[in-house]
Design goal:
Layout (H helix, E strand, L loop, with lengths): L2 H22 L5 H6 L6 H10 L5 H13 L2 H20 L1 H11 L8 H4 L2 H34 L3 H50 L4 H4 L18 H18 L1 H9 L3 H32 L10 H9 L4 H36 L8 H25 L5 H23 L10 H23 L8 H22 L5 H8 L6 H7 L1
Length: 503
């Protein structure tokens, strides 16, 4: 990296801190900190929802799979998310918003105490918070590996640098800072993504490289599903991503809650769905062509995007690409930290510490900022002590994808009227059974070296067990409740004042 590249990166960090300082003036209480007070424009909510699904993981782990295996990564990742979010625009996005507007909910798990009971809420809060801190640690490692590849900065220093800047603007600015960072990321990623795409097109002599490269690549690179990514894996991941990106990944539920109305949240989801179907193609085509430009990297494919950037981009643009990597990770981590803070301060602490229930508004806001600081610090500590080789893909697929289903199924299906009679017995059993299945299979594969336990099996089986337990116990042992019925029925329409504005 040259001087101009470093100037671009330094300028990006200054802007991020500036966003945090500006956003701080818009934060008057925890409703502003966690849900932007329901005042976020639908288009910003939609862009933020889309960009919150990215991190440097895409340019390390997923880019590596695109380099080694070709088309399949778009099919099992981007396509599943795009279709899932499109479905969720009608099923879940408006409901999340109406929870905030009608029930003063500030955390995605807050409604579970009424929908099921407090033990169910607490199990999912503790399990999800533990999962997220490891997930974020993987994202720190991913961005640090990219910084090391581009600039030779040691991984530990990279984690510390990006982590501290993220901590500053997250603690100051809350969800407003997250969303504005997402929008900045959208601009940076657009510039950097098109720069790489057109540089590759120029290398091959024109835009027709998009269809000509496949004849020069191994035949399996054009297969929709190949390698460990089977039809079973695809089907399981489609269900997982549908649940995850419509609120099972709690920070994405916040984007819908922050919109002005359920109708606006639906528009946000549809915008995000279209972006998921189209934009990843621009990012992946250079990686599909990469084996023809920087061959021989199969053993070190996690550095393939770095090699492409160095080979294809001019001075200054490399810095912009690197700033984009920072932006991806910092935006997602800030978003995750904000929602986990909401869960801790709204759902966990009031149950274990009586003082949290009687805090003043100013004290609640201060607690939220302290919790954000502590959560990011813990994730950085895990990242700094982890064995970085293979850590990113292992966490993203074998841990996050495999355990998201058991945590998300009661949360997400509990919002739908078809499951109104499914009660806490089914929800608790579903979550515990799914997580226990994952622990058994993961232990068999990783520690007992049972290689008949495939990646597809680890991802799909916990989800299937959890779903079956939820449905079978829920319908065999219905637990109807007038309070639950009233909650679910209230999510069908916007509040009367919002309906009047729309009319």
């Amino acid at each position: 990296m040259g001087t101009l590249d470093w100037i671009v990166v330094a300028g990006y960090f200054v802007v991020m801190v500036g966003i945090g300082l500006w956003s701080r003036g818009r934060i008057n209480n925890i409703a502003d900190f966690f849900t932007a007070g329901g005042k976020m424009p639908w288009w910003l909510s939609g862009i933020s929802h889309h960009m919150s699904g990215y991190s440097a993981v895409m340019f390390v782990a997923f880019a590596a799979e695109a380099y080694r295996l070709g088309l399949t990564v778009y099919i099992w990742w981007s396509l599943t998310i795009g279709l899932g979010v499109g479905i969720g625009a009608f099923l879940w996005a408006p409901a999340w918003n109406r929870l905030r507007a009608k029930h003063d909910v500030k955390s995605p798990l807050e409604y579970l105490a009424i929908r099921y009971n407090v033990p169910t809420q607490q199990l999912m809060a503790w399990a999800g918070a533990g999962l997220k801190v490891v997930d974020i640690a993987a994202k720190w490692v991913a961005v640090a590996l990219l910084l090391q590849g581009f600039a030779g900065v040691p991984v530990g220093w990279g984690i510390a640098l990006v982590g501290v800047v993220t901590m500053v603007y997250s603690v100051l600015g809350g969800l407003w800072a997250d969303a504005l960072t997402d929008f900045g990321q959208f601009i940076i990623q657009g510039l950097a993504g098109f720069a790489m795409f057109f540089a590759v097109a120029a290398h091959f002599g024109g835009i027709d490289f998009m269809w000509n490269i496949w004849d020069q690549l191994p035949a399996s690179h054009s297969d929709p599903l190949t390698g460990p990514y089977t039809l079973t894996f695809f089907m399981a991941l489609f269900l997982i991503k549908t649940l995850e990106y419509n609120g099972g990944m709690w920070n994405l539920a916040q984007r819908y809650m922050a919109a002005p109305s359920g109708f606006a949240a639906k528009r946000s989801a549809l915008l995000s769905a279209v972006l998921w179907l189209v934009w990843p193609l621009v990012l992946f085509f250079p990686m599909w062509a990469a084996p023809l430009i920087v061959p021989g990297m199969d053993a070190n494919a996690e550095q393939a995007y770095v090699a492409m950037g160095k080979a294809m981009l001019p001075a200054g643009m490399v810095g912009l690409v690197l700033a984009g990597f920072f932006s991806h990770t910092m935006a997602m981590v800030s978003s995750d930290a904000n929602v986990i803070t909401a869960v801790i301060t709204r759902d966990i602490l009031p149950r274990i510490w009586k003082g949290a229930r009687t805090m003043s508004a100013d004290a609640q806001l201060k607690l939220a900022r302290i919790t954000t600081f502590a959560f990011i610090g813990l994730s950085m500590t895990i990242a700094l002590t982890a064995d970085t080789k293979g850590f990113v893909l292992k966490v993203v697929i074998a841990l996050v994808a495999a355990t998201m289903g058991p945590i998300a199924i009661p949360l997400m299906l509990g919002l739908l009227p078809w499951f109104r009679k499914v009660g806490p017995t089914a929800a608790l059993t579903s979550t515990i059974g799914g997580l226990a299945t994952w622990v058994f299979l993961y232990t068999e594969q990783q520690f007992l070296k049972d290689f008949t336990v495939s990646q597809a099996l680890i991802v799909s089986t916990p989800l299937l067990v959890s779903l079956v337990l939820y449905l079978v116990i829920g319908f065999a042992k219905p637990e109807p409740s007038a309070e639950r019925d009233a909650l679910i029925d209230s999510l069908k329409t916007d509040a009367p004042d919002v309906e009047a504005v729309k009319a």
